[in-house]
Every structure is written in structure tokens, then in C-alpha cells.
Amino acid sequence: MFISKIHHAAIICSDYHVSKEFYVNTLGLPIISETYRADRESYKLDLQVGESQIELFSFQDPPARPSYPEARGLRHLAFSVSSIDRAITSLSAKGIQVEPVRVDPLTGKRFTFFADPDGLPIELYED
């Protein structure tokens, strides 16, 4: 196979400063680089997630993402965590609402969901 790993996931947010605060300070993702593109009146923030990255973009008046009912396309972003209980405690202490923990019937692994400031579903999957 010619594909070796996921390089990055791109997220378009409605409020750059709110989303930057969430991904950097609430989730603790380190900043690789931040660029303001004046011609587009747009920011691009590259965040480190293990060997992968998240590209956080801001654009003028992006349309809302259809989520409920779920639409075609990328469903959610999932992060591996070593302890789902510690992750939930950390998020809850920061005021983030987390869904009840579920168990994947195929793997027996525990997982849960929460949302970013734009309602993008984010999964935590215990490895």
C-alpha cells in the first residue's frame, strides 16, 4: 500500500480565537505554526497530535456543518487516550460536557464523545 499514515485533519471553525483556545489550552495540543493569510482574512493554525497534525482554519462566514442527522462525509475526529477516566476528569474540570462512556462491541475498548466549540464531534478512544 502506498499510504503510510494520516498526515493531518483539517477543521474550519466559526470563531478562530475560541477554537484556538479550545484546542491549545483545553485539549493541550502544541502549536507547530500559526499563519495569518491577509489576502483571505484567514488564520491557519497547525497543531501537533502525536505524529499527525490538525490544521485549524478560519474563513469568513463558513456554512454550518450538518451533523444531526448525520450527513455524508467525515463523521468525527478520534483521539487515543491511555486513560479515558483521566481524560474525562480533565475535560469536565474545564467545563466540557462528555457523553457517558460506551464500550466498543467489536474491540471491548471504552470510548466517549464530546464536542468542540462548533459542535464537531470528538471521540476519545482508550488504547
TrEMBL record:
Matching Pfam families: Glyoxalase (PF00903)
CDD domains membership: VOC_Bs_YwkD_like
Keywords for the protein's UniProt record, in alphabetical order: Metal-binding
Gene3D superfamilies with a match to the protein in the record: 2,3-Dihydroxybiphenyl 1,2-Dioxygenase, domain 1
Domain of life: Bacteria
GO MF: metal ion binding
NCBIfam families: PRK11478.1
Name by which UniProt lists this protein: Glyoxylase I family protein
Origin species: Mesobacillus foraminis
